[in-house]
Structures are given as C-alpha cells and as structure tokens.
Amino acid sequence: MTQKNAKQPDRGVLSAMDYQYAGTRDIEIVIEQPEFTSLCPMTGLPDFGTITVTYVPAQKIVELKSLKYYFLQYRNHGIFYEHAVNRILEDLVAVLSPKRLSVTGCFTPRGGIRTTATASYEKE
Amino acid sequence: MTQKNAKQPDRGVLSAMDYQYAGTRDIEIVIEQPEFTSLCPMTGLPDFGTITVTYVPAQKIVELKSLKYYFLQYRNHGIFYEHAVNRILEDLVAVLSPKRLSVTGCFTPRGGIRTTATASYEKE
Amino acid sequence: MTQKNAKQPDRGVLSAMDYQYAGTRDIEIVIEQPEFTSLCPMTGLPDFGTITVTYVPAQKIVELKSLKYYFLQYRNHGIFYEHAVNRILEDLVAVLSPKRLSVTGCFTPRGGIRTTATASYEKE
Amino acid sequence: MTQKNAKQPDRGVLSAMDYQYAGTRDIEIVIEQPEFTSLCPMTGLPDFGTITVTYVPAQKIVELKSLKYYFLQYRNHGIFYEHAVNRILEDLVAVLSPKRLSVTGCFTPRGGIRTTATASYEKE
Amino acid sequence: MTQKNAKQPDRGVLSAMDYQYAGTRDIEIVIEQPEFTSLCPMTGLPDFGTITVTYVPAQKIVELKSLKYYFLQYRNHGIFYEHAVNRILEDLVAVLSPKRLSVTGCFTPRGGIRTTATASYEKE
Amino acid sequence: MTQKNAKQPDRGVLSAMDYQYAGTRDIEIVIEQPEFTSLCPMTGLPDFGTITVTYVPAQKIVELKSLKYYFLQYRNHGIFYEHAVNRILEDLVAVLSPKRLSVTGCFTPRGGIRTTATASYEKE
Amino acid sequence: MTQKNAKQPDRGVLSAMDYQYAGTRDIEIVIEQPEFTSLCPMTGLPDFGTITVTYVPAQKIVELKSLKYYFLQYRNHGIFYEHAVNRILEDLVAVLSPKRLSVTGCFTPRGGIRTTATASYEKE
Amino acid sequence: MTQKNAKQPDRGVLSAMDYQYAGTRDIEIVIEQPEFTSLCPMTGLPDFGTITVTYVPAQKIVELKSLKYYFLQYRNHGIFYEHAVNRILEDLVAVLSPKRLSVTGCFTPRGGIRTTATASYEKE
Amino acid sequence: MTQKNAKQPDRGVLSAMDYQYAGTRDIEIVIEQPEFTSLCPMTGLPDFGTITVTYVPAQKIVELKSLKYYFLQYRNHGIFYEHAVNRILEDLVAVLSPKRLSVTGCFTPRGGIRTTATASYEKE
Amino acid sequence: MTQKNAKQPDRGVLSAMDYQYAGTRDIEIVIEQPEFTSLCPMTGLPDFGTITVTYVPAQKIVELKSLKYYFLQYRNHGIFYEHAVNRILEDLVAVLSPKRLSVTGCFTPRGGIRTTATASYEKE
Known about the structure:
The structure is a homodecamer.
Chain A: E1 16-18, E2 27-39, E3 46-56, E4 60-62, H1 64-72, H2 81-96, E5 100-110, E6 113-122
Antiparallel strand pairs in A: 1-4, 2-3, 3-5, 5-6
C-alpha cells in the first residue's frame, strides 16, 4: 500500500481577506481543525490529528472555507507529522504575512504512542 | 438568504453604574455570555458562540441587563467573527472608559473548524 | 419584593487564631465557599455563587466556623456582586492583617450571563 | 470525643535512599497521597485530604513505603490543617535536606467550606 | 520474586531520522507513551506509568517505532522510577543530541501513593 | 439560631397553564432547580440542593416563573429533606393533577454525607 | 419587545429521501441540533436549547440540510418549549410517516431553572 | 502492626426518626458517605471507600448525624470489605425495619485492584 | 468535487478466525473504530465518525487487522451515513454468520447537526 | 519477536476464603484490575487492558492478593483477547464455584481500534 504523492498540497487554494482593524488593534485568532488526516509515508496508512493555528494578522486574515479546502489536500498525501506542521506553517505565512503564527499538530496514537509537534514563526 | 443589515448594533443601549471602590481598589470582572448568536454575512446563516469580556473598571461598571440587550442586537445582524469581537470591544471601551478590557469570542465549529478570537484594550 | 437591609453583615462575628509558624515560614491558604448566597438589591431575588479567599497570613489565621457564620449574614442581605467581593475583602483584611489576600466571587448565570469578580489586597 | 495526643508523629520512621544522579542532574519529584486523614483537635472528628509533596532532592530521595507509614501516624492525631502542612514540611526537610520542597494539603469540605494550604522550603 | 537484570535496556535499538528543517526553524515535539511498564527492583512486581518526552531537535528526530521497541526493553527490567526517568533521558540525549529534552514519568499509585518525576537536559 | 416557621410555603403562588396537546399526546417534562435552599429545622443552618421535578401533565402545565417563586418560599423555612420532597410533590399534584409526577432532592454534603430522596405519584 | 408571529414555521421546507433498506431492516437514527433557538412568546427574549430527534424510518429518511433550514424558522418565532417540541414532532411525522419518532428539547436555564420536554409518536 | 478489635462497632449509636408520610407514600433515600475508612484485618493498614445506603423506609428514617458516628466506629476496626458491607446492612435493617435496603461499598485500589461489593435486603 | 465510486468496499478483505469456545460459551465483543472516514456522495467532502460493532460470534471471530483494512476502503468512497451502517452490517454478517450483530455510526456534526444511526441483525 | 508459551497461567495460585454470610444473603462483588497486560500471540508485542470480574459467591470469595498474582502470570504469556477472557472465567469458576460470574476485558486501542469482550457463567 505505498503511496505516490503525485499531487503536492497547493497553497494556491488559500484565500485571504482584509483585516478591517489592521493598524488599529491586534487580534489573536485560534483556528482548530480536529478532522485533519494525511497518510503515513512509510506505511501508506492514514494518520489522524488536530491541527491548531494561532496567529496575529498584519493586513490579512485567512478565509475559513479556503483553509478547510487547503487541509483537505493532505487527505491522500503521504507526509511525516513534523514536516506537515512545518509545511502548513510556511504556506500560511506566505499567504498571510502575519505578525506571528504557530502551528500545532496533535496526532492520535500509533503503536500506543501519541505525538504533538509545534512550530512557530515571528515577523522580525 | 442574504441579509440586509438595516439596523446596526447600537452602543446606546449599554448603561453603566458607578464603581463604588473607584480610586480605592481595582477589581477584575469577567462576564461570560454563552448564548451569543449573529449571522454570517456571506451565507446569512446563524453563528453561535460564547463572548467573554474581561475588564478592570475605572469609574464605571457595566449594568448586566443592558449588556444582555446589547448582545441581543447581534441576533439578526450579519458580521464576521473577527469584526464582532472588535466592535464589542470598541463599544464597551466607549461606554466604560475602563483601565483595561479584552473581548474573546469562541465560536462553534463551521465545516468542522472552530475559531476563537481575542482583542484587547489598555488605557495608556 | 424589595428588600430592606436592616442588618448589615458584621465583621465582628469573624474570629482569628494565632498562626504558629508566623515569622518562620509563609503559608498560602485557599478557602472556598460554594454555598454563598445573597440578594440582588434591585429585584430582591437571591444570587448564588462561590466565594474563594486566598491569603498569606501574618500573625493570624481565620477560624473557619466563624467565617461560615460571617458568610451566612449575606443570605438575606441585598448587595451587588462587585461590592460583596470588596466588602468581604475589607472585613477579612481588618480582622487578619494578612500579608496579602484576594477574594473572588463566581456567580451563577442570570439572564444567561455568568459573572466573576476578583479584588486583591497586598500589605505595603 | 476529645482526643489525647499521647503519641506525636515521629519523623524517625522516614527513611531515605541515595539519589544516583546527585551532582549530575536535578529531578523534580511529585508525590501525592490522597488518603491522608487526621483528627480535628477541636472536635476529635476525622479530617480527610490529599497531601502533595513536591521536591528537588540534593543527595537523598524519600523511600515511598516509609513515607506511607509516616503519614499513617496522623490517623489518630489531632492537628489543624495549617500546622499539619508545616510539620510534614519540617520533617521531610530534616530527613532529606532537599534543594527545595513544598507541601500542599487539600482538605475535603467541612461545613461546606473547602481549605487548601501550601508551605514551601528552599535551601539558601 | 526477585528479578535478575541480565539484559540492560540498550539504546542501540533507537534510530533517528534527519529533521528536514534543521537550521531553519525549531519544532517542539511531545511524545507520550501511556503503556510503559517496568519492574520494581525491590519486590519484582510490575510498575505502570506514562512516559512523556518533550524535545527540540537539532539535526535528528527520533523514529517512533524504534522508540516503542526501546521502551519495551523495560518490561522485564527492575529499576526505580527516578532512575528510569534519568536513564531514558540520557539514552535519548546520546542518540539525538537535541537542543533541549525532558522526560517525565507519571506512575500509577502504589500503596495509595502516586509519584511523578521529571528530569531535563539543555544543550549549553 | 433556632428558627420559627411563621410562614409555611404556600402552594397558592403556583400557577398553571393549559397544555395545548391534552388528550392528543403525552409529553414528559423535567424541571431542574439547582439553586434550592432551605433551613435545617434542628440547627437553623441553610441546606442547599437540586430539586428535580419530572411529570406527565394531564390538562395543566406549571408556569415556570411561579414555580421559581414557590421554591423561594423555602429559603427561610426549616424543614427536613425527606419532608420537603414530599411537600413539593403534594403541592404540585394538587395544582396540576398530572398523570404522574416525581420529585427528587439531591442535597449537598453535610458532615461529609450526601443525601438524595425521591417521592413519586401516579394517578390511579 | 412583544413579538408578532407573522410567519409560522413551515413543514414544507422539509424534504425526505428513500430509505434504501426499507422492508429489509430497521435502523434507528438520532439527530441532535444543539443550536436551536426560538423566542419566548411572553417576553420576546430568545430561548436556547438542544433538540434531539430519534426515529425509525418506514420508507423515508429526512434530508439533513432541509432539517437544518426547518429549525432555522424558529429563530424569530415566539413559542413555548412544550409546544415547540410537539410541533416539531407533528411536522416530522407528517413528512416522514416513520415507524416511531420522538422529540426532546433540552433548554438552557431561565431564572436558574432548566427544562427538558419529550414527546413521542408510534405508528399503530 | 496487627490490630486487636477490642471494641466492635455498636448499632446502639444509630437513632431513627418517624417518617411523616409512612403509610401515605414511599420515598427512596440514597445516602453516600465518601469518607469511610476501616482497617484491613490481615495487615492492619487502613482501607478507604465510599459507602452508599439506599432504602425505602417503612415507619422510620435514619438520623444522619447518628449514622455518621456509627460509621466512625469502623475507623480503628479490622474487617474485610465483604463483611463490613453485610454488617452495616444488618445494623441498619435492625434499627429501621425498612421496606427494602441495600449497601454498596466501593473501595480504593489496593495492589492496583479496585473492589466494590453490594448486599441487599427486602422485607418479605 | 463530485466523486466517482469506481471501487466499491469489498468484504473479501475481511478474514475470520475460529472462536475456540464455540458451542461452550457465548462472548459479547464490542469493537470501536473512532477513525472512520468516508465521503459525502452529494458534496464529495469527507465525513468523520466512530463505528461501533457489537456481536456475539457463533463459530468465527473477526480478525482485527483485516477489519481495519476493510474500514479503510471507505476513505475515498461516497456513501450516506445510513447506508454505510447497513452495508458494514451486511458484510460482517456475511463473513462471520454471528448469533447477533449490530453496527452504530456516530458522525461528527455537519451544519451543527450530529447524527447517529444503528442497525441490528439477529440469527433466527 | 515470537513468543514461546512455556509456562501456562496456573489457577493453582488462586486462593479462596469462606464467605461468612453464605446461605444468609447474596453479595455482588466487582473486582477491577486496570493493570492487566499480556502478549499478542501473533506479534509478541504487549497488550494492555482492564479486566473486570463480577460475581455472586456461593461458599467462597477470592483472596485479592492471590488474584493479583494470578493476573501477573499473563504478563509474558501470548494469548488472544477473547481467549484470555474465557480462560480467566474458567479458572475463577473452578476455584470459587460461584452462583454467577462474568469477566470483561477492555483493551487499549491497537491500530486505532478498541476491543471489549465479555463472557458469563451462571450456575444451573
């Protein structure tokens, strides 16, 4: 059951909207997707987890429906936990140019072992 | 099911009472409204969430019944999460002139995705 | 159902005991009374809540039974949340002269809205 | 039902073992005894609570079975909450000479009121 | 039921993979094994607990399946809680050379007493 | 602190409304009042509890606001748990003539002991 | 804030689909809508609750999106709890002709009192 | 640490009151004592558990304070779980002559193993 | 994003083992798969849910790894909740010929609405 | 990592005590061992679970310490869930000759799938 990764997740599906209070006031936004699923690149079996994105926007906020479709691209994509978290972070930073943003992936147990990974970005 | 926003929420319904210990001692007040509901400006469908207001009053504290009626104005009003949180913050700051105040909106999942947003004010 | 406040809560019922380790070692004491009830001064209807007292004694610790009777005095007394919290703080500080002391009142929802208030004292 | 305290709790029953990584690496150890019981010195009635000991050993760690027997000595001993917490702290510090140690007692409600007390020690 | 420790746990079974974002971005990884079991060196009876490893990799991340087999080696091995936590820390640090790493063992109650122990490493 | 019971709770404050589906369809209604409080007739001290009323109406349903005021009458009334439950049952049966009705009182612990009492009525 | 009920909830928005296993095997379906809201016909203020529908279909199953829109009609409609539950039951029975069906409404507390109501239908 | 059982628990401390609704209506009463403790007759070490008494009185109900003192007699008494449950049942039946009565003891784990025992009586 | 169902889930991947106590004693087996996911046939979007299988074997028990692979076949398959539950039931009955078997699917909310469906089989 | 089952679990380690109320009154006893572990006969890897034994004794009750040692024998023994449950039931019935007895094994997830199995015995 090996898995060809013909189609890489594409950040192009992400769309952003203007944050109306940009320059006036910061807002911290936490987005939680408990239905994230991807494939293990070694076994081809599905992994399940919760992805949590926490960010402070600069000019743009992410449109939630587009984020949902972005996450859906991982459904049949083989990727390790640690790299998925980093990739989601990079794609969101590229699209939103936020003041700061972090991504946490909390994955359901495999072989009895549960893993959580967190990567962070802060604008310099 | 598009939604005309004929009537904007009006901060005029908010009333304030004197804080009897003003100048003597600070008090931190947390108010939680778990029955907040507004409309999504894109679909016209209702959003549900919990609004939490945390503040330290200067001279005035908010009268709770008036706050309840203030929140009721959002029931048939179309507004994005992030802007509702900012608007509530602005209206309360205008009426109370508090030492500090923050507003958090924690909304029930849409498309499986849960969102929480927090905006803060601090008197300079 | 308006309410005459003939009898004000009286701090005289509070009694204190010596803290045997005074001068040797600090102790932080947290006391929680989940059965606090008073009356709303506007409607005369009862309010219910949990009062939490956290303090570091100097020479004296409060005797718990006397504290219970002190809280009982609010049962038929009309007072706003924010003022009850401040009053309890003042009475306990007067009787105990503690190093620091805070009082939190967490009240059950009214009109769907839950309120928590915290006031603090620190010896200079 | 008054209670004579003929036999004071004796720290002599506590035994300690060498901490093998002393000088190499600190370890923080948390020990929780949810079955602590003593007697109220005023009424002779039993009190129940959870004692939590948190410490960083220097050369010695406490042997758990001896700690259990140490706690058992309070079963028919009359002592106030605040003093029990301090006494346990003193006995453990005397036997272990730890880098730091704290004791928290969280007692079941009496007269509806719950009490928690925490005392701490830090080597100078 | 004394226990000969013929075979010591062997860090050689641990394998590591490259962290693809090494030098670019830190990631904090939390791994939880709730099915850890070893033997008490005094009684030969089994201990049960949850081992939690938290680390920030430098160049290497641990391969989860190898970690699972590493933990399995403790199943018939007699060792005290505090030393197991330290040993796991040393083995993981030796194999991963992480930026920082901590190990917490939370063990099920014995004689009614629950113990938790935490050791930490930070690269200088 | 003995308590004169000058004013007995009066079922006259209870009001009932027509059940519009009487004769067509049964409905089971569960009403929970978690803020019930009365006085212990022996000590005069307050008791707290949750009263749950479960009933199937015949022609009448209870008006909730009147029920709230009915319960308020117990606030300064001395009565044992078991009799309060029976009395509430009798008053509601008298006013509603329901098909069946039961009352459960679940009271907060006194002396560490929690009590729950349930009485039931069924129309013959 | 009285409320004119110009537009009654209309069962015409409900649509049904064929149950493919009709005649072969029964299925019990439980549908839970935790975001139900209507208006109190006396005060015009919103009520909030969870509606649970449990049924065994005969030939038809309800289409979930149409059910969502059906519930939305109550948002600005004034109706008592007990009647809302009965009305929803009647509308669903009319559209689905199920073998059996029940509706439970569990409403958030008003005046501290929580109400749950259940009505049931069974085909003769 | 063997234990002489000089003083057997004495049912004489139990007192009963008239049940005012005897002959009119049954009431089911559940009494929960979560602070029960006795001694293991083999090791002399304390056992802890929750005793739950459920009964329907005939003419008498148990006075709660006397029940508390009755349970206190087990504190320094050595008895097996299964026999304690039976003995409490016999003593309560003797004093109350109830319509039916059951006793459940749920004891905290020993050697990792938790035990619950239930005995029942029904008047013929 | 419509979905072609080229490959139907195939019961051929299910394998069974002998139940060693067949004819001697019944055993009830409950299997819970909380990571079930399929596609909505109308929108092509993923559904998530927990499938619970409860059965009493006759001669055969299901091999768990094969069941896991069987469930995996639904990952990219479009099917309604109610039909998925029925289909899984039919496939397991065909392979196991159990004495009785039921399947429950509890799906995560869509549009705020949660659905649970249960189908059952019993050998005549 | 295949596993030779040289030593089968031996019911000889189980010991029983007289039930003092035999012939007088039934008692239902529930024993829960949450630290059960055995080996999977296919992979040699450990399984973890909770074993619950529920029984009504005739003449004998099981001695808990001997039961603990009995369960320990499965630690390095390879056996399927369903057969372990049956074997424990047979061994306990053989030693206790109870009126009735059931054994439930609730095992931690493997491959994301959780299994529970229950077997029962009743004296004819």
